[in-house]
């Protein structure tokens, strides 16, 4: 896969999750205490190659009001400083408000892109933030799965990657409201893990889950439904659920409550399977 296609895959994930995580990114990563904010239209000028990823009017808890531009960047782009300078000039011309610009760099590599322009009559700079230097617990502790998934790009500290990946998977299971949402976030996690070269660790942990990640909606539940339909009776559907639950119990990733919810069975049913598995 070429770099452009790869970048498009990651860009799609951020667009899907951006609405849910913007405020927490501003507060946790940029450490700006937001009192209120509003979206600013992104159609600055049609001749721009692309629009800003996010432009917000922020009023912080100190009473300062400014425009905040966020760019999520995967590629170490040498001309990024030119693009940010162009954005700032157009934003300033249209809104006449103080502007703060941040590029959130997603790759695990050390970026070499210039962040400043200094010449006669001009001093310009933007802030470059490496997500790989942010404590992954900031994302892991969120109650939003859309935010939790970005923990895989952050700094694990002294935690072994395999254990950190396992924690992220468990937290995604806890915070995804439906099996369909969990399915989507697991797909995102597998793609983002490539940026951290963690795929071998996540593949090891997700080996059984992989079999249930399909394009069909709500696959966890449909696994049991489909087996049941093949057998043509309710017993088949129940056996299908039982087979799927047993596989998850062996891996020890999801809790009894989560499994009961995802497969529409009682917690007692799951616990009985667990007891049989231990015998």
From TrEMBL:
This is Rpn family recombination-promoting nuclease/putative transposase. It comes from Xanthocytophaga flava.
